[in-house]
């Protein structure tokens, strides 16, 4: 019995000593520290704009204007806006999946609702430590039209006959029907692409920003609300602004003053977005 107790005591002493050794700091090892999680390096060029005064909307004399585009003066503070639309590769890097209908790493992400974009921005800011956001409608139009001076009707040009150099849009031949293949409309690739085009494609506008006319409509932060003295749509209180037109739209819809709207929970293969920051 005495021998058995001695063995037990000896085993307890070994276990207790090992336990103390495991808890005690080892001066030869130093104090172990958990490495801080590294920030995501998100390669997304931002064009910095000084802001200024400009006239938003379109003049009454414009023959292709809509009646929700009343001319009004506005002042924009300095801000930054993405050189191009968010690509599918960038969305996947942050969210871990690709929702797009037309797939390609350099193509713009689409099939994303305004609500999903807000979640993307939240996740991106947490991973990068930055403060990205969607542009306001006024910021978007200011950037698309070339700033406060020498503003253009489309992003990059005033001439609809030159728009194909700057934008991915639908340019139909008069009287030519649009064929349907496998349930999809097949648009003639007069600008080089039948659907979406790479985000850094065509010529940039005067500020160095790509595809602000055409390719995909772009979500803005704002609710769709009427300008003073202008007509508004019935869905204004629940809708968010989209701007720029898309690969499926004519030049008229790709004017920088043209306003679009969409419910924040809906998504289509012709709506994407670009980022902004203060």
Please name the CATH topology: paralog of FGE (formylglycine-generating enzyme)
Q: Uncertain segments of ≥5 residues (pLDDT<50)?
A: 1-31
> Helicity level, as a percent range?
10-25%
CATH superfamily: paralog of FGE (formylglycine-generating enzyme)
Strand order of the largest sheet: 9-8-7-10
User: How many domains in all?
Assistant: 1
Q: What is the helix tally? A: 4
The percent range for strand residues is 5-15%
The largest sheet, given as strand count, sense and whether it forms a barrel, is: 4 strands, mixed
Describe the structure in your own words.
The protein has helices at 2-23, 88-95, 114-128, 137-144; strands at 46-49, 52-56, 72-76, 79-82, 180-181, 184-185, 217-223, 240-243, 259-262, 271-272, 276-277. The protein is an alpha+beta fold. It has a single domain, classed as paralog of FGE (formylglycine-generating enzyme), CATH 3.90.1580. The strands form four sheets. A four-stranded mixed sheet has the order 9-8-7-10, covered by helices on one side. Strand 5 (180-181) and strand 6 (184-185) form a beta hairpin. The longest helix has 22 residues, at 2-23. Residues 1-31 have low confidence and may be disordered.
């Amino acid at each position: 019995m005495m021998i058995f107790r001695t063995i037990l005591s000896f085993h307890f002493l070994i276990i207790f000593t090992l336990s103390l050794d495991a808890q005690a700091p080892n001066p030869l090892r130093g104090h172990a520290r958990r490495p801080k999680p590294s920030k995501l390096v998100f390669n997304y060029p931002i064009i910095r704009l000084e802001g200024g005064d400009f006239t938003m909307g379109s003049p009454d004399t414009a023959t292709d204007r809509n009646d929700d585009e009343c001319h009004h003066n506005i002042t924009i503070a300095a801000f930054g806006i993405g050189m191009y639309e968010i690509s599918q590769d960038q969305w996947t890097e942050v969210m871990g999946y690709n929702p797009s209908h037309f797939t390609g790493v350099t193509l713009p992400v689409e099939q994303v609702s305004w609500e999903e974009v807000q979640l993307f921005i939240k996740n991106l800011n947490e991973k990068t430590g930055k403060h990205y956001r969607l542009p306001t409608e006024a910021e978007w139009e200011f950037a698309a039209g070339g700033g406060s001076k020498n503003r253009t009707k489309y992003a990059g040009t005033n001439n609809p006959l030159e728009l194909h150099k700057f934008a991915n849009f639908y340019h139909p031949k008069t009287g030519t029907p649009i064929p349907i293949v496998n349930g999809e409309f097949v648009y003639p690739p007069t600008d080089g692409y039948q659907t979406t085009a790479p985000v850094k494609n065509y010529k940039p506008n005067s500020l160095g920003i790509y595809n602000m006319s055409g390719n995909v409509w772009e979500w803005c932060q704002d609710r769709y609300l009427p300008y003073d003295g202008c007509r508004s749509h019935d869905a204004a209180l629940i809708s968010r602004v989209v701007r720029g037109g898309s690969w499926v739209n004519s030049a008229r819809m790709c004017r920088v003053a043209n306003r679009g709207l969409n419910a924040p929970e809906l998504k289509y293969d012709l709506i994407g977005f670009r980022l902004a920051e203060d």
